[in-house]
Write a structure and sequence with these properties.
This protein is α+β, with helices and mostly antiparallel strands. The chain has 15 helices and five strands. It folds into two domains: about 290 residues; about 140 residues, Reverse transcriptase/Diguanylate cyclase domain (Alpha-Beta Plaits, 2-Layer Sandwich), CATH 3.30.70.270. Strand 4, helix 15 and strand 5 form a beta-alpha-beta unit.
Amino acid sequence: MPDAARSRGTVHLLRQNLWGLGVWLGGVICLVTMLLPADSPTRVVLVNAAGLVALLIFLAALLRMRSDARAVWWWMWIYLLLTVVGDLIYDVYRFHLDDEPFPSVADAFYLASYGAMIASLVLLVHRRQSGRNREVWIDTSVMSLAAACVVATVVVMPVLNATTAPTATTAISLVYPLLDVIALSVLIRLLVDVKRMNPALTLLAASIACTLTADLVFQSLAAQGVVEDSPSWVDGLFLAAILLLAAAATARGASEITQPSPTSQRTKARLIALAVAALTAPTLLAFSVWSEVGSGARLLAVVSIAVILLILWGALMLISLVEQQSALLADLARRDGLTGLPNRRTWDFELERVATATQQQGMPLTVAMLDLDRFKDYNDRYGHPAGDDLLVDCARAWHAELAPPALLARYGGEEFAVLLPGVSLAQSRPVLEQLRRATPGEQTVSIGFAERTPGEHIEDTLQRADRALYDAKAGGRDRVVAHGTATSRAPSEYPG
């Protein structure tokens, strides 16, 4: 067994090292791509080789995935395949035929790759959505319209204004930004409703974002007729998109990205995105008319945008305050006002939750009841404020002795409860004995505990722990008693 565990650890470490090496290698390849001249044969070979390797890595990961997730990733692999083939054909035109026709056969593969990408994203959204949410669709529409405004301004309008271009060239030039907007809209719909991103989904979103950004920049330059002046980082983004997609298929959580996710509420980041989307059209309008209107209109445009930003700032501050107050109220509802420990309500919830989890995992579960000895006499002798201080001191001392996932809660009055998931009856005794010894001052505590038996309801286990507590009281107090080690009697009145 130790050898097997060591082997598994070695394999895990090797995978981590390979993953890190792959990340560094991918970054180096992208950097070299951006530094090499556009017509460098080394650059062409490097880019195409990286694409083919990414295809093979993606395919290997795809074959190991769960069957319910493969459909989404198959469409993504087809998208990657079409993109890599399109790149190869484009390089053949450039370097072997000394020609760069537009449109060409390469464009057919590029356009088909967009179809595969959109199909994959649509399927992913369909698989993940747990229900219809009107807010999600409204937010998606607002952000998508803003993106469409940007694309129309920087790509579509320049293409339409270039009247010298042939009709076929113009049509193809318009199809690319249209597909960009569609893919971006589906990506926005996916991300708007994501409550928590796993590594695979993060890498997938980053890959598509790189593709869309690079393509829009390229199409914008093409509309202006300056493709040859395309910055080197655009090609680097295209290559990064390919490598990120292969990384997404091999990353943790790749098989789980299709699992339905609970609908998320509007977060701060989501509200900021909405505000930016709302500002997009007015900002573009202000820039478009900047040189055609007088100074008064320019000042009005600037002031309007500033007012909107200030309103956004105030709204975000208000949201932060509400979130803080909500978190505080939620915490107060879960905790005992005196000791700061989880209260009875939280105990009941956690008891059911942990009981279900440990039963599903086949783990032991032990519960314990703690009661301060002669606490009434203590209150009568020193007063209730001193009794409150004693409860606080005991709670602090016991809490310091327990490590997660153990749970200490105030059950009521001078009575406390302890939940020990994954701990058997025999393993629990040293832990509870340590709690007894940690009781501050000269105060003593009686503890009764029980381990849940297979098929037993957790409330019955709690009752057995309560009977053991009674046995500890009846046996002389200041002791730890497991249910069944003494004569178990129904608890009536504790001796105190």
